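Appendix B. Raw example, untouched.
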Amino acid sequence: MNYYFEEAIRIAKQGVENKEGGPFGAVVVKDNKIVGYGNNKVLINNDPTAHAEVTAIRDACKNLNTYDLTGCIIYSTSEPCPMCLSSIIWSNIKEVYYATNRKEVASIGFRDDLIYNYFEGRQRDVIKVEHTENELCKKLLEEYKNVIY
């Protein structure tokens, strides 16, 4: 396990040195082999979704030529934010190991708690999300049911 964290730390430091993003790194492991590397690339890519876990998942999917990472484990330098945790779940990764938690991340200026507070109903003013009926959107879902891959 230490080896995987060391690799995540290495790429996190490299990303900070290159001014790519925050001090976060992650690796995706399958059958005891690293199949995906990711560091925070929010700044270099001008992409708020380019967190370490997401970039590691993207790299693993590319390297394994699949969107399904069943059987993989992710090691992250920090607790995955809600977006990253959702990405991990969508990719079918069932094990996550992280080293620092959201409170520690908040102490250096990152705001994961804002999103957790929103989900817990304590900070509903963060964003307006409203359901709106639209028959064309419903039809799109029905049409998808008929698509054969």
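End of appendix B.
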